[in-house]
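quick q for whoever's on today - can somebody do inverse folding on this one?? i tried earlier but teh output was garbage lol. tokens:
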């Protein structure tokens, strides 16, 4: 018989881990809801061209990592590698973009990238993301980073910092791109093969290359600050001011450009506990809504990599108290079949094993499952119209009449 194993780069989240995921999901959703974010759910599958146009054909995500295929009608389809493009598509398609106001949306779910699997890098991974549409005010950039900072604090993460930068508006970004192109063309021989190609296709992408030779080569390159227009300078200054006012720890990295093409002005990444991969990242993308066929609406957002976050959070789950139901004999089993559902209907957690026959084997099961109490019903109890409840920790036993028993059980839970 073939034994099946996970597809490379995919991972299961097993029941004990799910408790930790749920705890973190709750912290994330509650925090963003207090900021006014509403959830949006988009499909896992979109047109391939949506991602090409937004993330950029030259990005690693599109050129190397996209899961793309033709459907049965020959349409070019892709599994979403990130959430922003889909949210923007839905924001335009649904008509939400026609309302003149600030929109705050959050999303959560699996993303797919054909990355080389390693620690913190999966081919299916979860992102929790937010997107804020409708204003280019730098305080919104400050607000989203501050919100991420709040999440980090609520999850009690240690040794973290934000890297921030600005890419300038489209004009500044293009001007900077030309300058980088000129600078690196003169040093082309020191670049990796990918970056040699990028000099022509997307010079700024070179600043995102992790190859040590490329890093060394661009380390003396002009920085964006040298070419920013006054508006962009003021924008970044106000963003930094907001972070300072809210005590957000950050460092400016003048070569931070991010791996996706749609960013303009503010970009940022969050690093925790000396990990080399960013836990979360994002930035402003003022022209993407228009570029994807919508009105000229600015936006800013971020996404958290859930697997990376979860690996850093300490959490010991507290289990809800529950009963084990031990029924011995035919009559007791019939009575138990009703009681177990009556209790669950009252949101009282109960487990049982219909197969077990003797009291001792039931008690063993109760211990194994970690039940707080064991409800015992045998032939004698049926005759006396009452049952026993044994505290599994102290061994103390009480009897409760079948009549109006739910309230007595609820008292135990208090
Ligand atoms: P990103 O930097 O590509 O940005 O991804 C955001 C986060 O997703 C990363 O910081 C990382 O934690 C996680 N991540 C990315 N790739 C993987 C992987 N292969 N395995 C595990 N985790 C991964 C975006 O996706 C943008 N859409 C963020 C954004 C939202 N910008 C504006 N709004």
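ok took a stab at it. sequence:
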């Amino acid at each position: 018989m073939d034994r099946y194993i996970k597809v490379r780069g995919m991972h299961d989240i097993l029941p004990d881990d799910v408790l930790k995921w749920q705890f973190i999901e709750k912290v994330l959703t509650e925090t963003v809801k207090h900021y006014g974010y509403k959830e949006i759910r988009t499909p896992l599958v979109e047109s391939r061209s949506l991602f090409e146009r937004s993330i950029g054909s030259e990005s690693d995500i599109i050129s190397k990592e996209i899961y793309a295929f033709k459907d049965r009608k020959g349409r070019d389809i892709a599994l979403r590698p990130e959430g922003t493009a889909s949210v923007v598509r839905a924001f335009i398609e649904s008509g939400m973009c026609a309302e003149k106001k600030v929109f705050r949306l959050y999303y959560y779910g699996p993303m797919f990238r054909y990355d080389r699997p390693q620690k913190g890098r999966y081919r299916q991974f979860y992102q929790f993301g937010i997107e804020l549409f409708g204003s280019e005010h730098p305080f919104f950039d400050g607000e989203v980073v501050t919100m991420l900072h709040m999440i980090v604090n609520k999850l009690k993460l240690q040794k973290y910092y934000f890297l921030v930068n600005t890419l300038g508006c489209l004009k500044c970004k293009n001007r900077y791109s030309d300058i980088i192109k000129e600078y690196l063309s003169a040093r082309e021989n020191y670049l990796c093969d990918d970056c040699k190609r990028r000099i022509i296709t997307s010079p700024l992408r070179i600043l995102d290359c992790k190859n040590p030779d490329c890093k060394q080569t661009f380390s003396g390159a002009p920085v964006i600050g040298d070419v920013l227009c006054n508006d962009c300078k003021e924008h970044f200054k106000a963003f930094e001011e907001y972070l300072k006012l809210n005590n957000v720890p950050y460092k400016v990295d003048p070569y931070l450009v991010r791996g996706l093409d749609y960013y303009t002005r503010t970009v940022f990444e969050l690093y925790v506990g000396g990990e080399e991969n960013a836990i979360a990242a994002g930035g402003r993308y003022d022209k993407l809504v228009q570029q994807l066929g919508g009105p000229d609406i600015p936006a800013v957002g971020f996404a958290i990599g859930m697997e990376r976050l979860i690996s850093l959070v300490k959490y010991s789950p507290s289990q809800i108290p529950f009963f084990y139901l031990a029924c011995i004999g035919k009559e007791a089993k019939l009575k138990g079949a009703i009681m177990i559902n009556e209790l669950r209907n009252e949101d009282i957690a109960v487990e049982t094993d219909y197969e077990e026959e003797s009291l001792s084997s039931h008690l063993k099961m109760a211990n194994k499952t970690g039940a707080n109490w064991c409800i015992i019903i045998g032939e004698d109890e049926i005759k006396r119209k009452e049952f026993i409840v044994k505290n599994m920790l102290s061994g103390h036993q009480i009897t409760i009449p079948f009549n109006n028993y739910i309230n007595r059980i609820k008292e135990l839970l208090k």
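fwiw The first strand starts at residue 38 and ends at 39. also The chain has two domains: 15-169+229-312, 323-413. so keep that in mind when u check it
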